[in-house]
Amino acid sequence: MIFLSHISIYLEHSYSYKEARGLIYNLLGISEATWERLKKKHEEIRYTIAEAKKLHEHLLLVSLTRRAEGEYYEDIQTIIEESGGKTKKKIVKFKKYIPGDVGANKYLLSRLHGEKYNENKEMLDIARKRQENNTEVWNTDEDTNDETE
Length: 149
What we know:
Blueprint: H1 3-13, H2 17-28, H3 32-41, H4 43-69, E1 71-83, E2 86-98, H5 102-113, H6 121-133
Antiparallel strand pairs: 1-2
C-alpha cells in the first residue's frame, strides 16, 4: 500500500498518535470508523503503526539524551543595516551551549536502568522483602468491635 509510508511519517513526527490520526484521516479522506476498519482488516497497517511508535519513542529518547548531556547549538541572527540609502544584510552566528539537564538525566537513568536508579529504591526493597517473607498477616479471627456489652 502506497499510503503506508505517509502514515509512518505522520506517526513518527507527531507528538501523539491522536494528533497523527487526524492528519491520516485528512490524507486518506476517510472517517475514523473507516480507519478503524482498515486497521482491523490489514496487518501491514497495524505493523506500520507499531513500528512508527517505536521509532518515535527512540527519537524522543535520543533527543532527551542529548538534552541530558548538554549540547551546543548555533543561533543565527540576521541584522539589516541602512546607511546612506544602502541596505546591508549581515548574518551573525553565535555558538551557544545548553548545559545538561539533571531532570532529564534522572528520568533516563530510572527509565533505562530501572530499579537501580529509582528514587524509591528503598521502598521497593522493603516491599519486595515483605512479599518474599510474606510478613503481613491479616488476622480475620479477631473481633474488631471494641464495644463492651
